[in-house]
Amino acid sequence: MNKARENKPHIGVFGRCNVGKSTLINKLVGQEISIVSSLAGTTTDAVKKTMEIKGIGAVVLIDTAGIDDDSELGKKRVEKTNEVFSQIDLAIIALNNDFGKEEAKLIKNCQKLKLPYVLVFTKSDLNPIRKDLKITIEKKYNQNIVEFSQDNNKSVVDLTKQIVKTLPPTSYQKKGILTGLIKKNSVVLLVAPIDSSAPEGRLILPQVQLIRDVLDNEAITIVVKETELEYALKNVYPNPDLVVTDSQVFDYVNNIVDEKIALTSFSIVLARLKGAFNKYVKGTPKLDKLKNGDRILMLESCSHQPTCEDIGRVKLPQMIRNYSKKELEFDVVAGLSPFPRPIEDYAMVIQCGGCVATEKQLHSRLLPIIEAKIPVSNYGISIAYMSGIFKRATKMFTKNQ
Fold first, then answer.
1. What's the confidence (pLDDT) of residue 183?
2. pTM for the model
3. pLDDT tens digits for 279-303?
4. How many whole angstroms from its chain centre is CA 369?
5. What are residue 59's DSSP bridge partners?
6. CB count, 10 Å around CB of 389?
7. Where among 270, 292, 308 does a domain terminate?
8. How far is residue 71's CA from residue 13's CA, in Å, rounded to a whole number?
9. Would you tell me how many other CB atoms lie within 10 Å of the CB of residue 62?
10. Is 266 exposed, middle or buried (CB count within 10 Å of its CB: 0-12, 13-18, 19+)?
């Protein structure tokens, strides 16, 4: 997974087989990224390509398989295409004069997920849109149709303008992770344990993101392992404005850092950034009400090789069992894979910090869970709650809301 790319706005292109999705993407990007053929089913798995759009910056275009492929293999491709909806910030729905139930279903998916979309009539140079169809669609969906011709560069300009107009600014206007919590020359102490689950020779992404965010705020960062924390507080800087720790050593750090100093975790600040913070705070007390036989779903945004020290698969489940003193079952889902069971089977869902996911991806992932009224929490918030420092770790955020 290209983690840098995953945090860019994602735009999915959907439509029937041979409607012109791949041609449209190649024309937008200015090079042949997706294979173009008159054979149905040419595009199999989703194809991603990063491009620059003036006024937005880098975006990820996703070419998908045709939604009307009813072959046995095609049905699996359509399933993969439908999964793309949970990954994107904007949908481009390609259509022709055969507009029907397939296109209506795509639009309905967008409406259900509150996902903005652009309607594009492709191959207009070969077969212009029927005027009656154009009027009907635009009136029914309150959307202007962009007429796209592969031989007309103005089509690219028109479609790009519509993308800029429709893409939510929140998907590309970067929010500071610590905005409102620190200011110029603030001192932020980051506690970064190094265990077997840490990447060899590197910091994990949330730690890198926090370092960059502190620098962007023209503040000062000090980074230590938990074993050097006490020394740093006594001999380097005794009164930092904020301490951010890895959740795994929350309890240990809490006992060392003076109560007057603001303390939180990497996972919690990312939860606040991605917008699900209030849902997590509300859902976390479910940890006190778990019963024998309850099943908990652990959601990881990234895919990685599990280890014996894995937080989401090993440490946190064991911590919850010890805290609740109940016999519990845990399922783990990595990336954007489907849930292994109906969501109603779960007593609770716990999401990771989501450092490699976009805000829209997290919202789409959590939407069916929230709609089913299943309590949701976050790795860091759950650990803070079970460590007895929930109020301390979250009060700075509730105070600034």
1. 94
2. 0.69
3. 999 999 999 999 999 999 999 876 5
4. 15
5. 51
6. 20
7. 270
8. 21
9. 20
10. buried
